[in-house]
Design goal:
Layout lengths: L32 E7 L12 H9 L4 E5 L8 H11 L2 E5 L15 H21 L3 E4 L17 H18 L3 E4 L13 H11 L4 E6 H7 L3 H8 L3 E6 L14 H8 L5 E6 L23 H16 L4
Parallel strand pairs: 1-2, 1-8, 2-3, 3-4, 4-5, 5-6, 6-7, 7-8
Helix pairs in contact: 1-2, 2-3, 3-4, 4-5, 5-7, 7-8
Amino acid sequence: MRRKCAAESAQPLEGMDLRKPIVLANMVSITTKFKFGAHQFLWKSYWTDDDLTILDQAHGLGLTLFEISLGDDVQFDRARVGRHAASLGIELTVGPGNLWPEDCNISSDDPHHRQLGLAWHKKSIEHAAELGAAAYCGAIYSRPGHVCRRPPPADELPRTAENLHLLAEHAGKLDVRLVIEPMSRFRIHLVNTAAQAMDLVRLADHPNLRVNLDTYHMITEERDYGAAIRRALPVLWGVHTCENDRGVPGGGLVPWTAVFEALSGATGCVRLMLETYNTGPGGFGYSRGIFQNVCPDAEQFVRQSLGFLRRSAQPSH
């Protein structure tokens, strides 16, 4: 069974117009619970059976969430990792962040590629369930790097929504949430903003579907962070939190006051996940397009980030 927050942030979908932002003033009496976590990419690119000590480090740093990256080039004992995470009280999520075949894309113009994408993601969701993961997260609606510079076909969003519905149904039977994340125009063309993500959720029309936002991708696509977050609140799973350069949160261009003011309207648990790429000795940031030394040491990155995020999450008086 997947590990859950005491109360999940998503509100019931029935009767809600997902195209409209939530009015924050109507929710001032709600107490938001934040949980803090980190992605394995702060440490390394490929998870192996020798990496349980990273979970121990995460626990020692005060984290209760951890995201592991799956892919065709990643092999490890999923049940063993899941047991260890559970023993530490860590909720796991997974994403398809490693080898993801180009022809596995549920929004592709090619119907065969869409079918391959469905099969590939169903297999990954099953791997998530073997881990005991709470969610399978990412740009599941397409594929990072898939950018079509053409007007969108009329059936592109509906056919994607239909496939997302099928994946959400499959994931739900395995007690895994399906979570989609908008990405910037440099990574993907189909869903760049919170509004577009909500349109897709509305079309997919499945109660097991959620949205994760990312403060790094938002800097390119959103003019108003607060409005974007409030728009996603009905189905918000969490937020990937880093600065506009993918560095430690704080001191950059991300409007953190607006971020946390909007998140204060969440009805329960909000997961704040640190996500960047290790750029220290032996790191792999350059291979992911990070050319500044933003994360030379994972533990230092987490400590500095947690200090800032916890201060920012305190209610103002």
